[in-house]
Amino acid sequence: MKTLKWILIVGVIVAGAITILLNNKARSDEKARRGQEVEKAISVAVAKVSKGKITKELSMVGTIVANNDVAIVSETDGRVRSVAAKVGDYKPEGSVLVQVDDELKLASFKSAEVAYEKAKKDYERYQALMKDGAISDNQLEQARQAFQSAEAQYIVARRQYEDTKIKTPISGVVTARNVDVGAYLGKGALVGNVVDISRLKVKVNVAEQDVFRLKVGDEVEVRTDVYPGVVFKGKIETISAKGDEAHTYPVEIAIPNSKEHPLKAGMFGHVTFTTIGQREALLIPREALIGSVKNPKVFVADGEVARLREIVVGSEAEQYLEVLNGLNEGEMVITSGQNNLKDGYQVSFNQ
């Protein structure tokens, strides 16, 4: 009897324990079910993927440089006798900037000139004699060689004499003068610098995704901090076919220098490329983007299910982003509530 009694008592205890465990499991399952229902019913806002006009206006800062910038170098050696230029002077092409002592060069030139004139007359006389048969072919050849040798010496002497007058090869403003009277110059010595700023160039480096939208001859607007509100009209003159290590391409814009608002080389120019213009693009709100522009993703509402999708973005247009790949027109992207979403979650829509 006692054994049976103990068996009954143990059975009751076990049955009670099982009942409690089953109730706990039911409650746990109910909580999990309710959690899933909450998880599947995340409230979100959506926006339609649509086409729209995007205006691409590329602006950047460049450096204004002279149309022509020439370093004046001495091609002779000798003592400086006179200097005919100072910084800021305007000099026409061919003007003498520095005169080097030319006494010996002039003597050599005159001597070579006399020898050249004599050899020339001798050769002409021998040619006449050859027609009359008075001299041999060998004598005529010797006269011809003597004439050519004298002519070469004359050309060298004339050039050496002319080099004593150091001239500017372009019309422009003297920006540097490196010599004074009495100084000794050697060949290759830097004498000064002359720049032509009647026309100017603005140099900018354009990123690879934008450079292919540009072409030579496109009109460009240039502004400066010196003249607020003044717009200088320019045109693209060159576009480099080779980029640098940063994958940017040098572009040069030509602009005329204004007499009313004169510019100087070395100034900053704010360049606006206006010819890229408007184009139609697939657009989404900026707030739909998840992650960075380098690795862009969005949630797309597929019915009442959120689907994570990778996309490719292009230009930015105020509060919108251009979509190049990954979305179709008419699809709905989720613009708020994404922080609580995972791929496959159910969503409900804000009214």
Overview of this protein structure:
- The chain has helices at 2-39, 103-131, 137-162, 208-211; strands spanning 42-48, 50-55, 58-73, 78-83, 90-91, 96-100, 165-167, 172-177, 184-185, 190-207, 219-223, 232-239, 248-256, 268-273, 278-285, 297-302, 305-310, 312-317, 320-325, 332-336, 347-349.
- It has four helices and 21 strands.
- The two termini are 72 Å apart.
- The strands form five sheets. It has a six-stranded antiparallel β-barrel with strand order 3-10-13-12-11-14.
- The radius of gyration is 43 Å and the shape is elongated.
- The chain folds into three domains: 42-54 and 279-349, Beta Barrel (conserved putative lor/sdh protein from methanococcus maripaludis s2 fold); 59-65 and 196-278, Efflux pump adaptor protein, beta barrel domain (Elongation Factor Tu (Ef-tu), domain 3, Beta Barrel), CATH 2.40.30; 73-190, Helix Hairpins.
- The protein has 351 residues and is of the alpha+beta class.
- Residues 31-38 have low confidence and may be disordered.
